Structures are given as structure tokens and as C-alpha cells.
Task: inverse folding
């Protein structure tokens, strides 16, 4: 856990948040500044900053995040109509919290990204 990381604090329970899903690998919360009617964050329990630092042993955790993203999309009722997964990496991408997380966006037709 990184001491100053808000996602680590949420995962540890030192900052309260409503978790939609939680297991030993990750947890899911709603984004506090949603960009779509459904905007969830799938966050690994372990502090992990950038995909560029990923090694082969991290593949299981990263794959699990994608499986959970699909699970919560179905749970939230956006799986059939469609949803977008977004991973921002670094300052120029708009990443605000330096802890890997996957945005799950849905609930309306999303524009852009062809």
C-alpha cells in the first residue's frame, strides 16, 4: 500500500466508499466524477502504478481486472447494450490517481474512439 494513495486507502478501508465488488485481487467503486450514466472503477488491491512496469507475473492480476470489469458491466445492466473500458496511463492521458485502474463506462451511446 502506498501511504498517500487514495485508492490504497479505499481498498484498506481507511477511507470509506461503497464497494460494488471486492475480492483478494481487486475492488470496484463508482467514479465520483462520472463521464457516463454508468462509470465504475476496477482497482487492484496491490498498489500498481503503470502498465509500462508490468512483468509476466502481473498478467494474472491484469487479466482478472478485465474479467471483473465484464462481470460488473453485466451486474450494472450495460453488458448487452455495450460499454467501454479505459485505462489512462500518465499525465497526458488524464490519469489523476497514479494507481492502475480500469474505467467501465456505459449506459448511453458513447462517442469517439471509432
Result:
Amino acid at each position: 500500500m502506498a501511504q498517500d494513495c487514495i485508492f490504497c486507502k479505499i481498498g484498506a478501508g481507511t477511507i470509506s466508499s461503497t464497494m460494488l465488488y471486492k475480492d483478494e485481487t481487486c475492488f470496484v467503486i463508482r467514479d465520483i466524477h462520472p463521464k457516463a450514466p454508468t462509470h465504475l472503477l476496477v482497482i487492484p488491491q496491490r498498489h500498481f502504478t503503470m502498465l509500462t512496469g508490468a512483468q509476466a507475473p502481473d498478467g494474472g492480476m491484469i487479466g482478472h481486472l478485465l474479467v471483473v470489469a465484464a462481470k460488473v458491466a453485466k451486474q450494472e445492466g450495460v453488458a448487452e447494450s455495450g460499454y467501454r473500458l479505459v485505462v489512462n496511463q500518465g499525465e497526458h492521458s488524464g490519469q489523476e490517481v497514479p494507481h492502475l485502474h480500469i474505467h467501465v463506462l456505459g449506459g448511453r451511446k458513447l462517442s469517439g474512439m471509432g
